[in-house]
Amino acid sequence: MPDLLPDLWFDPTKCFIAGQWISPSGGGTLPLENPSDGSVIGEIARGTAADIDAAVGAAREALSGEWGRMPAAERGRLLAAIGRKVAERVDDLAAIEAQDVGKPLKQARADAVALARYLEFYGGAADKIHGETIPYLDGYTVYTLREPHGVTAHIIPWNYPMQIIGRSVGAALTMGNAAVLKPAEEACLTALAFAAIAEEAGLPKGALNVVPGLGEEAGAALSGHAGINHISFTGSVGVGSLIQASAAANVVPVTLELGGKSPQLFFEDADLDKALPFLVNAGIQNAGQTCSASSRILVHRSRFDEVRDAMAARYAALRVGPAADDLDVGPLISAGQKEIVEGFLGMASAGEIAARGEIVADAPAGGHYVAPTLIAGVGADHRLAQDEIFGPAQVMIPFADEDEAVAIANGTQYGLVAGVWTENGGRQMRLAKAIHSGQVFINNYGAGGGVELPFGGVGKSGHGREKGFEALYGFSTLKTVAAHHG
Ligand code: NAP
Ligand code: MG
């Protein structure tokens, strides 16, 4: 893996505000850690409330300038051009992300490819969203206009920065909003890299502003800022609830993309060869640090032992190591996250652990490695089967029939994604309706994939939809114009 950090094409100790790279007010920095070995590899800007204020001001100004006046088709062309520049730099972006967040290179590369694809998709959509005419009283013409909210705030987590920038900032810019992005403290580099690429492609000043920093400092200042018109938040339930309270104080709409405990349901007639890679990969992708990870595997009793043994064999072959080695699983993001995950795994007794993967012998001692763990034997109400672990672990639970499968699937506070494995067409349709979640996959499972597919949660997984065309409605507001002409 090329060590790109000395040659970055942007300065990570700066914020990007009004098209300028500026030091944070107060001049603070935060350490940049490589999770693969725990070493400090640089510094990033510690943006403050004053920087957020400047960024919101710059975004507001952009709305009345070149950006605000830009026709939709031109906006779309510009987004597509940014997407092409991202595509040209996929390897660089992947190398940066791998060093910053510990993703195995292949997985980091997939995120960069997805970012380029979001920009391609939304670039093409920019001039295809429009209002309607509405039949009304005699002598009237009534129509609707789709307009940007104005200044949109984007607060994102560390697990998939590039993908989330694509779906959130990409959709907001498509609709003509001006964005202020606060990336996670532990994963700022690709957000800044993206800003630099957008600048190079000619994005007008202030249309996108990036302020790295701490959640309780820069993040809270952004979500509570009276000058923003919409908040898109992706992260934990606890912080999401704080964000919604800030949004309420300013009476602005908010999209919350929160956690999950997403199930895959494997029925007696399902094809195990087809399902097996999805059953396992959806749990260990990105070391399980995926909102839509499938962390619960529900299996019909008649097939339970067979599926457990097949999954256990896969688990035993999983290898964990530094991002540069590009193995199945990389390190977790931080020592703190490792401690949380190990705390959860400690709740399983030895007899309940069906299999574990292997941390390679030469993995650096300072890296935040956790061996993937398959748990079979805890009940559906156990904390391991209820709480989001956010690490490489899956819990297997048997069910007797369809009703019980649905009850277990719906029996957590979350509802983000579900997978259903059955050849029975009627059952496929019934379950697609009966399962409470934002997405249901039938005989496949898409953790994170599919830029075209609207995505979001029910229950504590959040509300509002990103991805696909649906996001464009969320990142715009509707105005009704009624003209009386007699
Ligand atoms: P988090 O702790 O909630 O942080 C998310 C973002 O919020 C970060 O940028 C964080 O900044 C910021 N933040 C923290 N405290 C804040 C505050 N008081 N005010 C404003 N902003 C604040 O979440 P995480 O641990 O990074 O991410 C993991 C969680 O995200 C999991 O629950 C996962 O399921 C969820 N997630 C959901 C989706 C989805 O689409 N549904 C996608 C990915 C992840 P700092 O980190 O710099 O403090
Ligand atoms: Mg890092």
Written account of the structure:
The chain has 16 helices and 22 strands. It is 38% helix and 21% strand. The chain is an alpha/beta fold and 486 residues long. It has helices spanning 49-63, 66-69, 72-88, 90-101, 105-125, 161-174, 189-201, 215-223, 237-250, 272-284, 304-317, 335-345, 383-386, 402-409, 425-434, 470-474; strands at 15-17, 20-22, 29-34, 39-45, 133-134, 140-148, 151-155, 178-182, 208-210, 230-234, 254-257, 262-266, 294-300, 319-320, 353-356, 358-359, 373-376, 393-399, 417-421, 439-442, 462-463, 476-484. The model has no long low-confidence stretch (mean pLDDT 97). The chain has a 7-stranded mixed sheet, sandwiched between helices. The protein has a 6-stranded mixed sheet with strand order 9-8-7-10-11-21, with helices on both faces. The chain has 2 domains: 5-258 and 463-480, Aldehyde Dehydrogenase, Chain A, domain 1, CATH 3.40.605; 262-450, Aldehyde Dehydrogenase, Chain A, domain 2, CATH 3.40.309.10. Helix 4 crosses helix 5 (105-125).
